[in-house]
């Protein structure tokens, strides 16, 4: 998503899509995908939601290396009716929401360089495809993503995109889920990051709080480093149900009069799973 005004690049279609041009990837680019894939696939069992692992096979296509979106979309379409389409980079909010509402996931086509293995400013194809596609193979999560797109189209008309964007951030990108007695990761920003896959579950620094839709839509977030607070859902069914049952129009109006909540704050009504030390974020401040 993007909040600034963007210009559609030459060569992009009216819906901002571009050909993936799979044949143009170099051997080194395919090797980078394989390296990242193997590293994450090896460390995720026991950390990631089982629904994600079940969807990971979706990415094991007939050719090794970076997935060909055509073949990937055929498989995803058969599973849940979703497709993956390439875009040049950030797209305007209304374009993003329109694609989601029509079960199309937009993905960047470039892959990080060896110097960027563990830190990347803009999401690359590894984040977009490895991080997001496995859960799009899950019928419940697939419906949640479409519902989010439809909700985004409504929020745009109500001037509430910022609030809805926080829901995306704290679920689709950085969500945790209860699985049996454990916490597991499922957000794409976590599962595609070697460091945050460990930090989000094991580090004493961040807060881990029970999912609370209204509270979360007021909570600031950071885009430059590991999160200081994670929100934990009970199940994907519950997430879908809560976002389908609530009437977002009155909710936005209600939240309008309330301020934003600081990233690391813990409020009296929060369900606290972990009260974080915030030691990691503080150590970064000292070093700044
Ligand atoms: Fe993402």
TrEMBL record:
One of its GO terms (molecular function) is phenylalanine 4-monooxygenase activity. Its EC number is 1.14.16.1. Keywords: Iron, Metal-binding, Monooxygenase, Oxidoreductase, Phenylalanine catabolism. Pathway: Amino-acid degradation; L-phenylalanine degradation; acetoacetate and fumarate from L-phenylalanine: step 1/6. GO terms for biological process: L-phenylalanine catabolic process. Fe cation binds at residues 127, 132, 173. It catalyses: (6R)-L-erythro-5,6,7,8-tetrahydrobiopterin + L-phenylalanine + O2 = (4aS,6R)-4a-hydroxy-L-erythro-5,6,7,8-tetrahydrobiopterin + L-tyrosine. Residues 1-288 form the Biopterin-dependent aromatic amino acid hydroxylase family profile domain. It comes from the Bacteria. The keyword Metal-binding applies. SUPFAM superfamilies: Aromatic aminoacid monoxygenases, catalytic and oligomerization domains. The keyword Oxidoreductase applies. It is an enzyme of class 1 (oxidoreductase). Its cofactor is Fe(2+). It holds the Pfam family Biopterin_H. PANTHER family: AROMATIC AMINO ACID HYDROXYLASE, PHENYLALANINE-4-HYDROXYLASE. Belongs to the biopterin-dependent aromatic amino acid hydroxylase family. This is Phenylalanine-4-hydroxylase. It comes from Sphingobium boeckii.
């Amino acid at each position: 998503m993007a909040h600034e005004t963007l210009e559609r690049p030459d060569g992009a279609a009216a819906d901002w899509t571009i050909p993936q041009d799979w044949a143009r990837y170099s051997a080194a680019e395919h090797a980078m995908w394989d390296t990242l894939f193997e590293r994450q696939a090896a460390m995720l069992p026991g950390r990631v939601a089982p629904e994600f692992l079940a969807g990971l096979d979706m990415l094991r296509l007939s050719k090794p290396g970076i997935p060909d979106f055509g073949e990937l979309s055929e498989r995803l379409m058969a599973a849940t009716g979703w497709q993956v389409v390439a875009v040049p980079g950030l797209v305007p909010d209304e374009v993003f929401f329109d694609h989601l509402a029509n079960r199309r996931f937009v993905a960047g086509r470039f892959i990080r360089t060896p110097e960027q293995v563990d830190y990347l400013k803009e999401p690359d194809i590894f984040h977009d495809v490895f991080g997001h596609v496995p859960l799009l193979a899950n019928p419940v999560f697939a419906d949640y993503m479409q519902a989010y797109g439809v909700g985004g189209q409504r929020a745009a008309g109500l001037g509430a995109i910022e609030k809805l964007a926080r829901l995306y951030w704290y679920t689709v990108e950085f969500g945790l889920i209860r699985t049996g007695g454990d916490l597991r990761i499922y957000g794409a920003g976590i599962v595609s990051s070697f460091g945050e896959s460990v930090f989000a579950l094991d580090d004493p620094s961040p807060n881990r709080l029970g999912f609370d839709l209204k509270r979360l839509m007021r909570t600031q977030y950071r885009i430059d480093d590991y999160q200081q607070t994670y929100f934990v859902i009970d199940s994907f069914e519950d997430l879908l149900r809560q976002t389908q049952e609530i009437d977002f129009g009155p909710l936005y109006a209600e939240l309008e009069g309330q301020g934003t909540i600081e990233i690391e704050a813990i409020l009296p009504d929060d369900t606290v799973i972990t009260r974080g030390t915030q030691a990691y974020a503080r150590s970064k401040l000292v070093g700044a």
